[in-house]
Design goal:
Layout (H helix, E strand, L loop, with lengths): L1 H5 L2 H4 L13 H34 L8 H25 L3 H8 L2 H29 L2 H7 L2 H28 L5 H13 L3 H4 L14 H22 L4 H20 L3 H11 L2
């Protein structure tokens, strides 16, 4: 990852109006603060109504209680987003030394998020699979169509987990020598798992469950404000975006190609041990 970040070192010396202190335009300082807040709004908009609905179903006995790993994932992801927000505020208000000290928490938080995510995906799958095969007849009838959908969603979960870890690794390895790469890649990495929140916004036009392409489109739209302001101010597309797109787009295409293929469903079942 250090090699990937380091390969852009000669370009990072070009003027970057969104880095350094002071910055020429007030929005240059606050665009990242606004982006962190925007990501939090997306997550809350997607997850809060969905969580409230499912809590009501648990109370009514219509679904099993949430597993503990789901609560752990929610706490870790919420903590990560708040850390991102706090880090941007520290830089925007000139407290860069504190930003560097607090940022060390990411070296613990990110691995914890990845590990918990690896546990969460099979846990939720087995919960639904068990109900679809061993539950009362009405439960089996209701959950049987959900199992193939979860197998497709596993593709999104696997790709999001791998890309999040990869992009965060690039961002952290670039934090000292390439601040422009570091700050942008932190946001681009965080954008990848936003699809989980976006897919819960039932009122958005969507290609799901037939195809995941709409999710990819909304993720690109989520990072668009940062990219557009960046291009407007620097008159170029920063290397962080090119690197992100070069990895994200082929991965999204592979997921779309694999989506709902019979061989993938068989592979997913073997992967889940059922």
């Amino acid at each position: 990852m250090a090699t990937v970040a380091g390969s852009f070192s000669f370009r990072e010396r070009r003027p970057d109006l969104l880095s350094g202190t002071p910055r020429a335009h007030s929005i240059d300082r606050w665009i990242f603060v606004a982006m962190a807040a925007w990501f939090i709004v997306i997550v809350l908009t997607g997850f809060v109504p969905d969580a409230l609905m499912k809590i009501g179903m648990v109370k009514a006995g219509q679904r099993p209680p949430f597993p503990m790993v789901l609560h752990m994932h929610a706490v870790l992801m919420g903590t990560f987003l708040l850390l991102l927000q706090a880090q941007t505020l520290m830089v925007a208000t000139g407290r860069c030394a504190l930003h560097k000290q607090v940022g060390v928490a990411a070296f613990v938080l990110v691995p914890a998020l990845v590990v918990v995510g690896l546990i969460l995906a099979p846990t939720m799958y087995h919960q639904v699979w068990g109900g679809a095969h061993f539950g009362p007849p009405p439960v089996r009838a209701a959950l049987a169509p959900v199992v193939p959908l979860l197998e497709n969603i596993l593709l999104l979960q696997i790709s999001a987990g791998l890309l999040f870890a990869l992009f965060i690794g690039v961002a952290l390895s670039a934090r000292k020598a390439h601040p422009g790469m570091h700050k942008r890649m932190m946001f681009l990495a965080t954008a990848v798992p936003l699809g989980a929140a976006i897919d819960r916004m039932w009122w958005l036009p969507s290609s799901m469950p037939a195809s995941p392409l709409s999710t990819d489109g909304y993720i690109l739209a989520a990072v668009a404000p940062m990219l557009l302001w960046d291009v407007l101010r620097n008159r170029r597309v920063h290397e962080a975006y090119w690197l992100w797109l070069a990895i994200y787009l082929p991965t999204a295409a592979l997921v779309a190609f694999t989506w709902d293929k019979p061989w993938w469903h068989s592979a997913a079942q073997r992967l889940m041990g059922v």
